[in-house]
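Many introductory courses stop at the sequence. We go one step further.
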Amino acid sequence: MMWRLGLSPTAILLLAMLGVPRAVAHDMGPVGAVLNALLVFVPIGVWLGVVVWRELPRPFLTLLVIGLTYGVFVGLAHQLLWPWAFDSPPRLGGNLAGTLSSTAESTVLRLFAFGSSVLTGLGVGALVGLVGWGALRLRGSRPRAAG
């Protein structure tokens, strides 16, 4: 995988894990605006910095994979912290209210929450990937072949 992305799987995992503290802070309670901004933007800045500094061969793909991995980690963090994130467990509303057992309802909500985290990670990875690709193009850098 390194030859395609320019980073080892370990580097991808470590970069993605930089975003997990934000998920933990979100689930455990409110944090100040400055700390929240740091937890949101510092990991993304590090991802972008690594890709541009190393002039990776496929910046968009690399950042998309980092974003996907980040989304999985955030989804797992939310699942682990679920009991502490809510004063009372979330419930389905509208036409679905009361139609499922509490176990099925919890499962549906958790699956959608996990999927939402993964899709958010993919979206963040895609946006940062576009910025990284553009930054390398503007710099006039030719992405280096990995290896």
